[in-house]
Design brief:
six-stranded antiparallel beta sheet; elongated; seven-stranded antiparallel beta sheet; alpha+beta
Amino acid sequence: MNLNIRKSLPLRIVFYVLTFCILLFIVVLSVFYSVSKKKLETMTFQNAENLTKTTAYELEKILFPLTDIANNYIWIIEEIADDPDSYYLLTEKIVANNPNIIGSAIAFEENFYKEKGHFFAPYSYIEDNEIKTIQLGNDSYDYFVMDWFQIPVSIEKPYWSEPYYDEGGGNALITTYSLPIYFNTDTGRRIVGVLTMDISLDWFTEFVSSVKILETGYATIMSKNGTFITHPNKSLIMNQTIFTYAVQVNSPELRELGRLMQSNETGSTINILEGAKRAVYYTRLPSTDWMLAVMFPISEMYLPLKTTTTFLIILLIIGLTLLSFIVINIIAKQLAPLRMFAGSARQIAKGDFNVKLPKITSEDEMKELYDAFVYLQNNLNTYIETLKETTTEKEKFESELRIAREIQMGMLPKTFPPFPNRKEIDLFALLIPAKEVGGDLYDYFIFNDMMFFVIGDVSGKGIPASLLMAVTRSHFRSVGTYLKTPSQIMGSLNNSLAENNESNMFVTLFMGILDLSTGNLVFCNAGHNPPILLTENVEYINVIPNLPIGLIENYEFKEQSTNLPVGSTLLLYTDGLTEAENKEKELYGEEHLLEFVEKTEYNNTEQLIKNITDDLAKHVKDAEQSDDLTLLAIQYKGAMEYEKSLNMSNDINQISVLHDFIDEVGKDLNLEPSLTMSLDLALEEAVSNIIMYAYPKEDHQIIHLEVIKRGSDLIFTLTDSGIAFDPTLKDDPDLNLSVEDRPVGGLGIFLVKQIMTEVTYSRMDNNNVFVMKKKLK
């Protein structure tokens, strides 16, 4: 069985089923865990509260009756006041009749019975299972200062003492219940002593220690001032209060718990105690004012739930494993025919359309799949034959379209620069058809120092438009050499197309003849988009629209003329540019084109057209091209009055050759010696930069210098194939700084900028092109 889930349907089905089951179990388990957790918390907290109350009740069952016993005996003391020795018998009786009492004393104030001396306190206690009686007070045991005596006398009400170790009496850790004794005296009824009952705390500790909750939960009892009376840690009993212990273990939470217990009768809290999060329930024992607290770790409360959850997860894993095994085998058996059909499909894909199919006896989806394969086999041969014929025809048609496109594009001039020996112009053109062939056209040629050029757009698209485009371009070439004006050429083209134009197709054209010696342009427009003239001001040329050619025979076309300033550029285009749409059906537009051309920077016509097409691509984005696109840019540089060139190697010794060359240029142009020296200095700095930065490690490389003069412009062009280096990026030095503070570099190009009128850099065809223009007076 294939264990790759992506390639095995049974495994995918099992994966989806198991995923659903696991998610369902997670949801159910989460709900179960949440509900069980809340119930467990409620039950545990309730048990802890009940346990606290029950333990307090059990302790009170022992402590509270002692107060009744004391009250029962207090009246007897006054009855036998005349016989003080009978108090010994009374204390013996109290101890003998009450097993929880290990000692009892009747202690009178100083010299109450003068015949008995300063101290008189009959005291009976149990020692070695026998009741012994002594007179408790003496010089070594001054009971008048003991808490069990002086506090109830002072507060005039019963008092449970803090636990203490009674060395002079019962010699045990005890607590004493003291009840004031009232006698009628000469000064009125007043307290004359106390009746005490001593209770051992051993049974107290054993009883409280037996209280357990969860695994490590325990109970503890603290006295009124927080002293530990019982605690699992024996070292704390009678040695620490909850407050001193909190300081010892650095637990502010434990100290806060002590304050809560002293200020409240009963309550509960959850806090970090003894390094763990614990729940605490506490209540006050009414008889003694002591505090009983039951506490347990929160973590132990969830142990049963965690055990149950772990058990359920293990059961789930086992169950899902068994389910996976069973489901995989059942599904694999049910889907076995699919593997056979897959094999048959592969054979059909190889061309065996009559492959044998698996037999299906069931009437389910497998039978439907079998019938579909039979239908596929019966119709596939016919379809393949039809497809072969269609494909052959389509390939033939596409081949013809490719040939037509190659022929059409081959008719258009596409070598740039087209006239490398004519320095008067820079020209670049681009045509992008919307389909395999298109109806846009452009053309140009030079005849007798006159450049003839045309750009046009044929109505429609595809093959008919391409044929009309070819006819128009050929006719333009044939008549342009003997018809001398654009209007005459346009009329001849119009009559030729209109004569047999049964399809009513037409062509919009813009045609011009540029005098390369003067810059005079004569042009004629036939329903085409007006061109843009880029000078210091960028604007559309105001043209007479005329009619497109091919519509009306013998139509009289009107021509216009203008003068192209030196350095100006004429941009011609078809409506495939301005009417290009994005997916939101927004046009590129003539206004946007004019705004973009105004702000774009370019060094030549090729860069200008590339900038425009890049901006167009940002506009249309992924929208499909709907019309042919053609651009033609012509820059008029003016008639060249002077030209001279020099090739140098990248050797610093060639600077002398450069000096001689500049001197010759100065003499040829009759320049002032000071100007020649300045030009010589600027060229030396520029060539030195090229040697240093463009060719830092290469020898015997060529640096080409070309000098031309057009009108008042003297233009120096340095070209090298070295590393890309733009010297114009150097920041101008701060001449106000001292030589020591001024950064190194930048003075050379700064000097060049000061001498020359204009300095530009461009990277063309992997060459550095550095142009320096000097405006002559």
